[in-house]
Every structure is written in C-alpha cells, then in structure tokens.
Amino acid sequence: MPIKTIYSFLTYARKGKADDTVVSGTEIPPDEGKLCKMLGTMFANARTDCTIPIVFSSENGKKENGVRNELMALIDKPSLDAGKAVAIRLQQATTGNSGMGLLFISIGDDGAATRIVVSRFPADEGVVAERDSDNLTVEFVDQVFLKSAHAYKAATYLREGKADDMWKGHAIDKQMNNGSRAVADYWIVDFLKSDLQSTPAGGTRRLAQALRAVLTATDDPQIKTEITAAVQLAGNIPDKALTIAEFGDEFHFSPKTKEAIAAKVNPARLVNEKFKFDSSEFSKHLAYKQIELDNGAVLTAPAEKFDTCFAKQQADAGTTFSTTGQVVDERLRTVK
Amino acid sequence: MNDEELRSEYERRYREVLQPLAAKLSYQLVTDVQGLERIDRVSARAKGVDRFMGKATKSTESGTRKYDDPLNQIQDQIGARIVVFYLDDVKAVSKAIEAYHRPIEAKLLVPDSLNGFGYFGKHYILTLPEDLFADDAERGSCPQFFELQIKTLFQHAWSEAEHDVGYKPGDTLTELQTRQLAFAAAQAWGADQIFCQIRRELDPTTSH
Question: Which pLDDT does position A58 carry in this prediction?
C-alpha cells in the first residue's frame, strides 16, 4: 500500500477564536527517508491501528457532513489547498488543552480503492542526546511532535468510488476517555464531526443482553457470582467508552467468565466494538432489586423476577418474605 | 452494467442478502421500541426486484438516467416502517430509534404549501446495525443504510390508499380528483390532530 501523497500542517489551538492564524503546510514527496518510512508504516497499519468504527454525523438532519465532503474532495483531487481546509477545521476544533500539533494527511492505494489516513502528533518538549566516540551532547527541544502513546489520534477512510462512500471510517484516540469532555470529544466529535458507530444505548444493550444470556445459560456459580457482582457495580461506571471485552477487564472477570460472555455476543467481532457505557440503559436490561430488612436480612434477585422469587406477606409485626429453591452457592461476604 | 445484468445482480442480492437482512432488522426494530405503547406495527422489507428496476431505470427530464450507480445510490433497498396511533407517539418512537441508531438523514415530511394537504411522515436514513451482519458476511453486496418511516395510522392509511389508486406525481388529474385527494389528505391530517388533542386532554400526563 504505497503512499502517493503526503501533506503536513502545523496547527494551533483556535477553537472559539477568530481564525486569523496562518496554517503552515507543506507537501512531502514520498521518498525512502525516515519520515516517509514512518508515515508509510502508519499508513499500512492504519486499518489495524484504527480500531474504533465511527460514522459521520448528519448536519441539521440532512445527508451532509462537511468533513466528509472535504476529505472526499481531497482524495478526488489532492492539493495543498484542499488539505489546508482540513487543517483549518482541525485548528478550529482545537482548545488550549490539546494545543499545537502536527497534522499529517496521507493518501494512497488500498487494493482497487484509495485510502486516506489523517493523524495528529501533539507538540511536546523534549531532550535530544547525541553521542560521538568521546562525548555526549544534550540539547533541549521545545517543539517536538511525538506519536504519543497517551495522546495519539488518527482516522482512516476508504474511497471506493461508490455514491455512499466514506460515511463510515475507523479512528484511534488515546484520549477519548479523558476526564475533560473537551479533550475526550476533541478528535472524533469536534474535529471529525462523527460519532462512534454503536450508540451508547445500542452498545450497552448488546453488553447487557450478553451478560443476561450467560446468567440464564450457565450453571457455574463462579461465573454467576462474577457477573452478578459486576451488574450491581456497573452503575458506577462513568460515561466512558469501552468494549464488551474491556467491561470484563474492568471487573477482573476470570478467563472462563470472559469466554462465556464472548460466546454470547453475536456476531463475535462486536466484543471489541467501542461504545459509551449508558448506565440507565444497562439497568433497563439487567437490574437487581435488593431489599434490606431491619433484622439484617438482605434479599436480592433480578428486578423482573424479584416478586416471583419472593412471596411477600404484610403483617403488623413487619413484612415476611419467603422463597423456596435449591442452594447452588453459599458464601460469606464482608460487604453487602 | 446493462439493465439485464443489473436485474440479475439485484435478484441475487434480493434473495441472498436483502430478504434475510430485512427479517433481522424487523426483529431488531421491535426490540428497539419494546415497552412503548400504541404501536400498531413494525415491519421491514426488501425492495422488490420490479420496483427496484423501475426506480433504477428512471430518467431525468433531459433523458439521462437518474441513477448512474443504482445498486449503491438507491437507499431504500431495505425499507422499514413503524406505524403508531397518535402524533405524540411518533415523537416517542423517534426518540427510541435515535437512541439505538445513527441517522445520516432525518426529516419531517410536510407539504410545501401551508394550504396544502398531502404526504406527512417522519423519515430517516439510518446505518444498518452491525449486529445484523455475520462476521463472514460479504459486505460488498450489503447496503450500508436503510430507510425508516414513522407514521400515524391515518398518515399510513392515506399514503397507502393514495399509492394504491395509482396516482403518481406528474400524472394529470381532473380538478375534482385533485380536490378529492386533497380532501382525503386533509381528513387524515385533521383526524391526527383531533385524536392527539383529545388524548392529551383525557390524559394530562401524556408527554408532548
């Protein structure tokens, strides 16, 4: 997959400001140098590195998206000016938190289609150390652009020449779960004017349905206990993007529990699809009702089955709950 | 691709891809609106071969084909419809649909003229949920989007009858026929307004 065209632009933080800053850009002729080799590797690996499926958002309900239009125009007729439009858009989405960055746009063939990779390297400070046979020289550099493991962002799209090309793409954003919403939304929402392919409710429902299917199917008390505990705690998960697999990691599920859950996700690839966790949607599908009595007893059952699990009798002395079943698990817990 | 090849390719797509997808979509949409009241029906269908070909071979006024890539340009190859009782229910269903799907287009269709009565309805073009595609699905033949219409019973009844009598935009109608169609549309519009109003008055807890 050789890159045919590379553009690079220095972008500043101009969100909410009059955009009077000149965007400096250049075309980088593809060659055998180290920079092109690095960009070539990023281009070749874009499909596997950019793992988050995204969809351009409709603008005002119309089948229109300005970023999509600009990227398609750039692919169809590459030019520095067409690239600059994308760089200006990035600049206008950039806050002081994200700061200065170096934008690379690489375009090349991918089979019969054309692929575009847009990536941003944030500016940082660094130290360059050079050693010759006798000496070590150390020098401070105040504008170094790094493919940071904590802030790297990229997106890739495939242009196949079809009428509905490029509504969908893939992204990577190492800061999408940043505590600051401005930082978390910067790349995908604010710059690319896109959303995750799975909606919060859709992704969360998929997770909840898989967990519920495991709880119904399994006889393994450990799997039941792990999932039940996670369900009770899941309401505390913040508004964060995760995959079904990452939900299992979050609660330190055992390998067999993770396997049981993955087996209930159909199609299986969606185990690794990111979505923003929606706690209210989760509790719609998987909730546990818990009642505590003043004598210390705690009764728990799936919310929709609670009233069939426990028969209830009201009397002056208090409420009597009763239930009958086989004991499948018994344990001591230090917390409720 | 000539028309014969287009028909043959669409017939294959219809049989192998669209019909199974429509069945799965229908099930998913039912799940999406589960718990909502006053839903008359939820359905999804693959566009029939003849209807597809009719649309694909349409010409513009200048005589050129309207679609140069109909397999990718025609977006209602899978169409779905949710019919609800009242206008307020359209809002509730729309909210549920937007929670589970990504729209690339959303519009409320109303006649251009304030004095006119004709087609009303909420239309979406939505990405087909990934859950519908098996891991080994041949995605090249699968559409990316589907069209969803959300209508009241009266909107649905009017548009079905209007479609059934065979009137198409551009047909010449007599003055009386034009008035009759407008009258029927106005009746359907009025019935929606009145039932919505009565329901709100009888059940003040109704959200609107």
Answer: 93
Residues A70 and A171 in one domain: yes
Structure confidence by residue, pLDDT tens digits, A12-28: 888 888 766 667 899 99
Q: How crowded is the C-beta side of A293, counted as CA atoms within 13 Å? A: 13
Task: Please tell me which of B63-67, B100-104, B105-109, B176-180 the model is most confident about, judged by mean pLDDT.
Answer: B100-104
Written as six digits, the tokens of A53 are 């499926």
Say whether B130 and A270 touch across the interface (CB within 8 A): yes
pLDDT in tens, B157-195: 988 888 877 666 667 778 888 888 888 888 999 999 999
**Amino acid identity for residue B97 in this structure:** I
Range in A51-60, A298-307, B13-22 with the lowest mean pLDDT: A298-307
Q: Which long-range contacts (CB under 8 A, 24 or more apart) does A133-138 make?
A: none
Q: Which of B29, B55, B72, B104 to mutate to test the interface with A (most CBs of A within 10 A)?
A: B104
On the CB side of A84, CA atoms within 13 Å amount to 10
* C-alpha to C-alpha distances, B185 to A184, A259, B39, B179, nearest whole angstrom: 48, 56, 22, 10
Average pLDDT, chain A: 89
- Supply the pLDDT for residue B152: 95
| Neighboring chain A residues of B103 at a CB cutoff of 8 Å | 58, 61
Question: Does A254 lie in the same domain as A298?
Answer: no
State the best of B131, B145, B146, B148 to mutate against chain A, taking most chain A CBs within 10 Å.
B131
Report the alpha-carbon distance of residue A112 to residue A160 in Å, rounded.
7
Q: For residue A269, which amino acid is it?
A: R
Domain count along chain B: 1
pTM of the model: 0.86
Residues of B in contact with A273 (CB under 8 A): 130
Overall number of domains in chain A? 3
The ipTM, to two decimals, is 0.86
* CB-nearest partner of B100 from A55, A61, A202: A202
B10 found inside a domain: yes
- Count of CB atoms within 10 A of residue A58's CB? 22
For tokens 């779905």, the residue is: B80
Indicate if A71 and A174 belong to the same structural domain. yes
Domain that holds residue B16: 3-202
Average pLDDT of chain B is: 89
Residue A332 included in any domain = no
Asked whether residue A271 falls in the same domain as residue A295, the answer is no
Domain contains A328: no
Pairwise CB contact (< 8 Å): B144 & A56: no
In angstroms and rounded to an integer, the radius of gyration of the C-alpha atoms of chain A is 26
Within a domain: A262: yes
pLDDT category at A108 given cuts 50, 70, 90 is: very high
Which domain covers residue A79, as residue numbers? 3-120+147-196
Closest partner residue to B99 (CB to CB) among A57, A201, A273 is: A201
